């Protein structure tokens, strides 16, 4: 692969300082939320971090609960999806220490609590995807599956999990 | 690993030419469908291609929408699952150029829009699994989770995502 | 990485004999259940085993079917989640021969058949997570997504898939 002496150059040219960028954008990575059960927020294997599903939890409370399109508007669900991403990044930072280590947001799983006639799952999960690209640029561009589920833990309206590669 | 000079031999002995096989079977890989949001159809990490969830989209239109067992018959849902696979392969070909590079269809996620009393999700997703084995032989044999979801993007009746390894 | 001569020491100090531990706990790994379709119970890529979704199947019969919170109690669903784990381990043992080869339960996907007002998915899937930690200790600690689905194959109340790393 590349030799050690050209690494820093590649780094300075191509890479955003993600931690600074989050601050510049006015975002705050919250305290990592406690898992809702006996599992880890993140499990690393090789250079992949498998991130547990996170809920739109703020200060221990679900920000938006219920079914999107029935109890929760599209805009509220989009706000919830963004909160999920901040919680996800919080869990990752707790594991790897520095978000600058992220190489790629590889995959996002977006679960939207929804009724049988709902079809705007991408509109909801786009709020999460857009936020990742806003922060991480091309590094944040990911594959994704967005689906409509019957219900979610603690009646959250959205849940998001992820696979993230890092160095 | 193996030296370069025995690669072609291994290749000729064990491997089907998948691109030819698709033509021989009379199948056509369609134009890659546009993503339904701000994400990538495929994100590669190492030798793994994480494929975004695809819908039964033909020429920009969902072929079968609604709930399987209510609005959509089992046979229609099976046809939709096959269309998903062609779209998935189209996305993969757009990324890696040549489907002969596929080493293994590692995992399929099959999401079937269904009601609470439905139980034939495997019948639907088998249409996708069988198609992959028909084209790729043992290379196409994969692990899988098939579940029944409340609804899917654009009211599609099926969505399929995948992890595929390639060289 | 580590040299060959310190491997056994690390092994004896840190590692539980998982096969013995399963027996000591009085658990029995059942015969691997037949797949409900044309897929593999497990597909290995590198050192990762992608495990297909398993159902709470005992001797070919679903132990608990229906919707959790409606047809199935929380306790019954928890029992079903544990049966899923035994089936998962059975499938893995059939593939890799010896469960002592497990390095990490990397990720669990927990699908709970549930109604729109259900929120106790973690309570159900914790039964699976706790069982894995009981058997495998820290090796069994995993990331996880628990969601509520509309329905599952053969009307099972729970389905669990997994990614497991091994040597």
From TrEMBL, chains A, B, C:
Species of origin: Acidithrix ferrooxidans
SUPFAM superfamilies per UniProt: YjgF-like
Highest rank taxon of the organism: Bacteria
Stretches assigned to the Endoribonuclease L-PSP/chorismate mutase-like domain: 19-156
Name recorded for this polypeptide: Endoribonuclease L-PSP
Entries under Pfam families matching the protein: YjgF_endoribonc
